[in-house]
Specification:
single chain; about 270 residues; mainly alpha; 2 domains; two-stranded antiparallel ribbon; 2 strands; binds zinc ion
Length: about 270
């Protein structure tokens, strides 16, 4: 088949007309159904290259100032101008796990015990300690070492769980399953930067005494509500009272997703010991 026989495509990033799979001006890739498959999404996670550059700063700034915009650009095929949200996520995750002073996607034994299933966890821990012949301080030490490693890998579990209600809340919005997941990756980036890294820096510089449970809950809810309201409008084109209702519902689902994720993290950690 000659080049002339393939259809003329207008580039979604730069407007150039070309034949083939890539724009010959800017290199943008033409999206095919296979590019949106979950398998491709997973392999992209594995091959994501992570480095800080101007693209990363620009992408991070957009995540903070125009939540949902980068996800929209990615879902609609305008990708070359931004760092992949998944790459941004891994960079932020790496920074966060150097000094995880604020508990978000990692969770110490103390945090786990204050979860809704804390009483049940206590029993499991007691049995495990007897089995291993350990006292509480040494058990905690081993547990913490293991769980930090797993948390780094398993945040994607949270992202996928959190994206599930979106398939129902926004099912009319012509978005694919992987678009919802990609959008939750953006939310995870936002939370890693605002509620994990920034708050950890504040805690490091002595403001930790003001960040008690109530203050943290207030900060988590208000910042996530900001993200959901703005991105619900930008990414899903939702408006008025429906946008407010769906955003408030999503806050509840995010809390559930976080608790389910932490419970899975707990069991994986215990089983590995
Ligand atoms: Zn182009």
């Amino acid at each position: 088949m000659s080049d002339q026989a393939s259809p003329l495509i207008v580039c979604k990033s730069c407007g150039n007309s070309f034949h083939g799979n890539y724009c010959n001006e800017c290199g943008e890739k033409v999206l095919k159904p296979a590019d949106r498959s979950f398998k491709t999404f997973l392999s992209n996670i594995l091959i994501a290259i992570t480095f800080a550059d101007s693209k990363m700063i620009k992408t991070l700034w957009l995540v903070l100032s125009k939540p949902g915009f980068v996800s929209k650009e990615f879902a609609e095929g305008r990708r070359v101008n931004y760092l992949k949200p998944i790459s941004l996520f891994f960079v932020l995750n790496l920074i966060y796990f150097f000094f995880p002073l604020i508990q978000l996607f990692n969770a110490t034994l103390t945090t786990q015990l204050s979860s809704p299933w804390g009483v049940y966890f206590k029993n499991i821990i007691a049995h495990k300690m007897v089995d291993m012949g350990l006292n509480l301080p040494s058990f905690q030490l081993i547990y913490h070492q293991k769980t930090v490693g797993f948390a780094k890998l398993m945040v994607m579990v949270f992202v996928v769980i959190a994206s599930l209600p979106l398939n129902i809340l926004y099912w009319k919005r012509n978005r694919f399953f992987t678009d919802h997941v990609g959008y939750m990756v953006e939310l995870a980036c936002f939370n890693l930067f605002v509620n994990a890294i920034t708050l950890s820096i504040l805690a490091f510089f002595g403001l930790g005494k003001y960040l008690n449970e109530e203050v943290l809950t207030f900060i988590f809810i208000s910042t996530n509500l900001y993200f959901l309201l703005r991105s619900g409008n930008i990414f899903y084109h939702e408006k008025s009272w429906r946008l407010v209702l769906k955003s408030v519902l999503m806050i509840g689902f995010l809390k559930i997703a976080l608790e389910v994720y932490r419970a899975i993290l707990f069991f994986v950690t215990i089983w590995s010991m």
